[in-house]
Design goal:
heterodimer, A: two-stranded antiparallel sheet, 28 helices, B: two-stranded antiparallel sheet, 21 helices, 2 strands
């Protein structure tokens, strides 16, 4: 037993509580507490990572054995340990970066409290030993995301985005909880290890298992923003940019993938469920990449890119390779956080300009930002030897082997990825500045640039197998086959070249394709559906309640009782005796009926 | 002795206030002391033991065999704790009262005392009488100190609840007379023993009458329309006490009397109960979404959440009923806090119309934080006791008659109940968005934040529900001995 895992988990919570209760009015001290907590948590995670066979104390949440037993316990296997390092490591860098990004924000203390609370919730998901505990932290992550997206809550767009994110996730969690219930009833436990042992009790009902697995998958669809619940993630960019980097790119959205890998044993047992999962991932990957090619907001481009990359990971899960999914999750966390933080330093130095067509020529003035952004871009589009090349190649090779249709779509996505990223890079960093803000831009302070440089290192190197295998289980190596990596490289290079040719020295977008610009009309479709179903039903029910149920009750009651007026007259203090009298009458009645009859 | 104190002391304090003792001071001290004494009871209580503890009994009438008997099991203990907490908070939250100040505070204490007595009584007669004692001041509070169309609201709640109480009385009499004459008693403990003597054929009708009576008191669909109107008109402390505590009397009664004494009747009418509670969860949930005023929205949401507690009762499992008990407690605290804060907002802005509000988080950060905590608690966010209760209820219900080949009514009800969780998130987040977020409403310029001293009751309520949210087992182990005896044959 070691107290260390608990302190890794609880330190950020403690920081959040201290800030809310005591240091709210002192933003400087609050941010210091928050950063100190995450650094301590990171140090603790390093020790946990290096300690084999570490155990943590198990507490009881609900114990009604033999029916239901929910402990608050830790799994501390290699998967968890890597996630601990990843979450606290990237988290620590983003905390530091936030010191710069949020330095003049009025809600700085609140921001850091929420950030610490997020760290606590996310770490909770990673260490949970059972479904109910994971669901607890799952929802807490949702709420911290709500708080951080809505950080600037006085802006209507941020307020709407926060609400949308929470509600969309709740829809996914509706399925998730139902899936947990089904799996629990069949296996008799919610603890992962016991469920795995009792799996035979569920595999004899393949349909039941498939339904349960797909419902559990719904949770991942919500949290990892997969089609058709992807609509909240682009809007979530209303939050401060470090949040977009930490929560909506590197860690929280990866929780869905992590969960699927954690309970991989359930999914492995159902080929039908795996098929659905792989196609959901593929659809998301292609669709999001297509939409990304026509966005003009730098953060939205990156958001759709995140969707697309998460699609790759889900695709890998569906193709029954948790290792490939985790590998890509691992490299993606670094390079996507790097890209977002780079975008953040551009945005803040251009006085909160986010439209790429108002930028241009920034390569010279924001030198370090440019170079690190380039590292992130190369990793994302999969240029060897940058990290993304290896992890994406693992997924492509997997698809090539398992399902050719998915492979070609994945390859097409790789082409699109290179296209939209080079479009972004060319428009933002090259050509002439297209606005005064862009002409005045300069490099960000060191607390923001430092994390960029530190993230650029793993964004470059985390894909090499000798580095990666320390942290993640790599998919089994095939004998060297140059076809898949060759095709992938070809797709990336051609996408990049097309984008460079098309966008070099442009003042505005030569392509204007409304369906993609309008994000395939998902938001319009959903708000129509909501108003046609839920809103309509709500209005009808409210009408019934007011005019039929209540109306009938009033009419019925008023004819049945001996006149309203005399009753109303009772509501004067002077008539307290009348109450006492009626009350006494009731009691006498009770006694009469019970005793004398 | 302590038990006697927590029931009688608030009563004495209420009388003292009526006779002219300084109202607020007396009320605060007496409810504070009662809360302290209840906490003593909580720590003195020995969990894991079945049966009633700390029983005190005084004969009232030997001829009629009526005794003033108080006693505690885990369920009634938690009901007392809820009552003491909410009464204390309601008194603290009471603002300036323009007229009949002493009468107002006395009414609050009478409600608290009545609830305490009803939950601690082991005698059918006092169980009923104490509840009636608490109802009357509720009507008065709405009728005299209410806002808006208070006379209509007071009239409606009086008609409904008086009818409910009357039907309940009828049911209790039928229950009493169903036992063979030699074994008749008002005493719960004796009743429990002689329950087996009630023929199964007679149980159905009695259960139906009790369900109807208790159900009206708890705003079971379709007898719920009094609730939102009454809560919207009631002064905030009255809404806190009724929605938080007194309304729970009906649920307590079902758990205490109807389930253990009439198991066959419960089984016979379980289907009906499930259909009705789905009305609470889905139909009332949808009605809640359509509300345009914060107080009405909260009132309907409290009606909706009764559905989950009824579901736990209908599940007929140890897990489900324990979850219902946790939810009774948790909902009582979160709804009390919500009504209290809505009252504070109304006092400052003069309106609770959602469209006129907005951006209050900037002007009232303390209120924004507190309301946010209570709102997330009430929609079942993990970490709050409400979530633990909901988890137990849905797990208990889903497992009832589960069959991997096909879904039964329990499984279907669970699916709908889980959808209800989405519905409650929709209305609660919309309201929070409309009230606290976005641009500041036009007429809200000079609105001030909560008094600093309100941190005490808010903090108290929040900490308690967080404690039971993170460690629900500390609640569960108190109530399971009682429920285990109900399902001894089944499990």
């Amino acid at each position: 037993m070691s107290a260390l895992p608990w302190s890794v988990l609880l330190l950020p919570l403690l920081a959040a509580a201290v800030i809310v209760l005591f240091t709210k009015s002192r933003p400087g001290l609050s941010s210091f507490i928050s950063v100190a907590a995450v650094l301590a948590s990171f140090a603790g995670s390093c020790v946990v990572f290096a300690t084999p066979d570490i155990q943590a104390l198990e507490l009881i949440w609900i114990d009604l054995r033999p029916v239901l037993y929910v402990p608050l316990g830790f799994v501390l296997d290699d998967l968890t340990k890597t996630m601990l390092l990843l979450v606290t490591g990237v988290g620590a860098l983003i905390h530091v970066y936030s010191l710069g990004y949020m330095r003049n924000d009025a809600g700085k203390a609140r921001y850091f409290a929420a950030l610490s609370f997020f760290m606590f919730s996310m770490l909770g998901i990673v260490v949970s030993s059972n479904f109910v505990m994971m669901f607890i932290f799952w929802e807490l992550v949702g709420v911290s995301s709500y708080l951080l997206i809505g950080h600037w809550f006085e802006r209507d767009a941020a307020a709407e985005a926060a609400k949308k994110a929470f509600l969309t996730n709740r829809i996914g969690d509706f399925g998730f909880m139902l899936g947990i219930l089904m799996a629990w009833v069949a296996t008799g436990s919610v603890v992962f290890t016991e469920m795995n042992q009792q799996l035979a009790r569920i595999t004899s009902y393949p349909e039941y298992l498939t339904v349960a697995a797909l419902l559990i998958f719904c949770g991942a669809v919500g949290k990892s923003a997969q089609f058709p619940l992807h609509v909240w993630l682009p809007d979530a960019m209303e939050g401060p940019t470090p949040i977009s980097a930490l929560i909506h790119a590197a860690t929280m959205v990866a929780a869905g993938v992590y969960m699927l890998v954690r309970v991989g044993f359930l999914f492995q047992a159902s080929p039908q469920a795996l098929g659905v999962i792989s196609w959901i991932g593929t659809i998301t990957a292609v669709m999001a990449a297509l939409i990304a090619t026509q966005q003009n907001d730098i953060k939205r481009i990156l958001a759709y890119s995140t969707l697309s990359q998460l699609g790759y990971m889900i695709m890998a899960v569906g193709l029954a390779s948790g290792q490939a999914a985790m590998f890509h999750l691992f490299t993606h966390a670094f390079f996507k956080a790097l890209l977002f933080l780079g975008a953040g330093s551009i945005i803040v130095m251009l006085n909160h300009e986010q439209n790429i067509w108002k930028m241009g020529g920034l390569a010279g003035r924001l030198g370090i930002t440019f170079l690190t952004f380039l590292v992130g871009t190369f990793a994302l589009i999969g240029l060897p030897p940058f990290s993304g090349f290896f992890s994406k190649d693992a997924i492509l090779a997997l698809a090539y082997e398992k399902d050719r249709a998915i492979f070609w779509l994945a390859l097409f996505t790789a082409f699109l990825t290179a296209f939209y990223m080079l479009r972004l890079v060319v428009v933002v960093f090259f050509g002439k500045p297209r606005s005064d803000k862009a002409r005045a831009g300069r490099e960000a302070p060191w607390v923001m640039i430092g994390p960029l440089v530190l993230l650029a290192i793993p964004a470059f190197a985390s894909g090499f197998s000798f580095v990666a295998k320390i942290f993640v289980q790599l998919p089994a190596e095939k004998e060297t086959d140059w076809l898949v990596p060759g095709l992938a490289l070809g797709a990336a290079l051609s996408g990049a070249l097309v984008a460079i040719g098309l966008y070099r020295n442009r003042q505005n977008d030569p392509i204007d394709f409304a369906p993609l610009r309008k994000r395939l009309y998902f938001d319009e479709l959903y708000s129509f559906l909501i108003s046609a179903t839920q809103e309509l039903l709500a209005k009808i029910s409210a009408f019934l309640d007011r005019w039929i149920l209540d109306g009938a009750a009033i009419r019925g009651a008023s004819t049945a009782t001996w006149g309203i007026g005399s009753l109303l007259r009772l509501f004067q203090v002077g008539n307290l005796q009348a109450y006492a009298f009626l009350f006494g009458l009731g009691i006498v009645g009770l006694i009469y009926f019970t005793i004398f009859r | 002795m302590i038990l006697l104190f927590v029931v009688l002391f608030p009563l004495a304090a209420a009388l003292a206030i009526l006779l002219g003792a300084p109202a607020r001071k007396t009320a605060l001290w007496s409810t504070g002391l009662t809360l302290g004494a209840t906490l003593l009871l909580y720590f003195a209580f020995e969990a894991g033991q079945g049966g009633y503890q700390m029983v005190t009994s005084f004969p009232v009438s030997r001829d009629w065999n009526i005794n003033f008997t108080l006693g505690l099991d885990g369920l009634s203990l938690m009901m007392l704790l809820l009552t003491a907490l909410v009464t204390f908070a309601a008194v603290w939250f009471t603002g300036e009262i323009a007229e009949h100040r002493n009468a107002f505070y006395a009414c609050l204490l009478f409600i608290g005392a009545g609830a305490m007595g009803a939950f601690a009584s082991l005698d059918l007669f006092f169980f009923y009488a104490f509840h009636e004692l608490a109802l009357i001041p509720t009507f008065l509070l709405i009728g005299i100190w209410g806002t808006g169309n208070r006379q209509l609201a007071a009239w409606k709640i009086t008609i409904y609840l008086a009818t409910g109480s009357f039907i309940l009385l009828l049911g209790l009499i039928m229950l009493y007379r169903a036992v063979p004459e030699a074994a008749r008693s008002f005493d719960f403990r004796v009743l429990q023993k002689s329950a087996a003597l009630i023929p199964a054929s007679a149980q159905g009708n009695i259960f139906l009458i009790l369900l109807l009576g208790f159900g009206i008191l708890v705003s079971l669909f379709p007898f719920h329309t009094w609730a939102p109107e009454a809560y919207a008109s009631a002064p905030a402390p009255a809404a806190m006490l009724h929605a938080g505590v007194l309304k729970k009397f009906g649920l307590y009664g079902l758990l205490r009397l109807a389930l253990p004494l009439l198991p066959a009747g419960a089984q016979q009418y379980n289907m009906l109960l499930i259909y009705l509670l789905l009305g609470n969860l889905i139909y009332v949930g949808l009605v809640t979404i359509a509300q345009k005023r914060l107080d009405w929205m909260l009132g309907y949401s409290s009606v909706m959440h009764m559905g989950y507690i009824f579901l736990g009762i209908a599940s007929g499992t140890l897990l489900g009923t324990s979850g219902a008990a946790v939810l009774i407690f948790a909902h009582g605290i979160s709804i009390a806090l919500l009504f209290a804060l809505a009252g504070e907002i109304r006092q400052r802005t003069g309106t609770l119309v959602l469209e006129d509000l907005g951006g209050l988080g900037k002007l009232m950060p303390r209120a924004g934080l507190a309301f946010g905590l209570a709102a997330f608690a009430s929609i079942g966010l993990p970490g709050f006791a409400n979530f633990a209760g909901e988890v137990m209820v849905v797990f208990g219900t889903f497992r009832s008659g589960a069959n991997p080949e096909r879904f039964h009514i329990y499984q279907i009800a669970t699916v709908l109940a889980l959808w209800g969780v989405v519905i409650s998130a929709v209305y609660m987040l919309r309201a929070y968005r409309a009230v606290f977020m976005g641009t500041i409403g036009e007429s809200l310029g000079g609105v001030t934040d909560l008094r600093r001293s309100l941190r005490v009751p808010i903090g108290l309520l929040v900490v308690i529900t967080l404690w039971f949210g993170f460690f629900p087992q500390s609640f569960v182990r108190l109530v399971t001995p009682t429920f285990k005896s109900y399902f001894a044959a089944k499990q």
